[in-house]
Please model this.
Amino acid sequence: MRERDDEWTGLMRSAIAGDSAAYHRLLKAVTPVLRAAARRGLARAGQPVDQSEDIVQDILLAVHLKRHTWDVSAPFAPWLFAIARNKLIDALRRRGRRIFVDIDDFAETLPGETPAETASPGEVAAQLQTLPARQRDVLQAIAVDAASIKDTAAKFSMSEGAVRVALHRGLASLTAKLRER
Amino acid sequence: MDTDQLIRTLAADNAHRARPVGFALMLALLAAAPVSLLMFFTELGVRPDVMVAMHNPFFNLKFAVTLALAIAAIAVSLHLSRPEASLRGFGLLLLAPVGILAAAIGGEMMMPQRLPMMTRMVGKNSSTCLVAIPLMSLPLLAGALVGLRHGAPSRPAVAGAIAGLLSAGLAATLYASHCTDDSPLFVAAWYTIATALVTAIGALAGAKLLKY
Model:
């Protein structure tokens, strides 16, 4: 557990320093842990666990947009779990249940426990369709077609800077829409 | 969009750097301050005998109380903008203005006074105080909330209440230079009521606006 936390903290430090590959690895590494906790929370609230992917995506978006509130000298896991807990409580509340979520739900996830993604997630994909065309195109090119910023810029005859702006704005407004639903 | 696709998209956006919350809060407060200052100078203004008043320690103590409140609230609100933070420990900072005020009341008690205690507490400007501080707070509160939206507080209502304290502290600093009631008893009574009102507004607004 300690080793895992140190590894995450190291990856996040590299990510903040500009290493996108480290950031990608970090997000991949935390996702199974978040997924397991989301399932446990849903199961305990008597909700179908196949909604866990929406919650995982919600958490990942919040982590991304709020990562400047992480103190690079602090361990990463407590920060991550605080966001995850907040989002899980929100999600359960929205489904009409008040439930106490224990921080240990996240911390205690065993390394071997890596449930696979189940149902295709709906909420992010649905909100994606409501974005302005340019943001949606850019997000889709990068997400679905795995295009680089450069390729996306060429494809839509935009500058790379404009692609970056559209990408970030798209992610921010997706998150805002998810929050307001 | 499946989760792997989302992760790929987030990683592609890694180059984007958000400003620290403290910077966003400072900018938003600087943008809001002219509105409150305009309200102050058009409707109230600094009291005419300010040069004389500055020799009265109880006039100066009003600023110590209001500025201590504003500064402590800024520090606490920045702390609370981190998701894993709680009020524990840091909340004690908010006792600083209370301590200064209590000491000032004690000091005043020990000095001979021309006016009885109740008269000093009731003062002459209580209604102005109760209207002016909340009104001048509102632009600052709006600014503080805009700035703090860059953070990720785990309890948005609490964070909003602290934003209310912050803006009330700043507005009360302006008001203190207008008000001719310098007794710490007056401050303890009326400034506190005005601050409590702004804090409640901040909590209500924060619960909605500071959710991330």
Q: What stands out?
A: Chain A has two domains: 1-119, 122-181. The CA atoms of residues 92 and 98 of chain A lie 7 Å apart. Chain A has a mean pLDDT of 87.
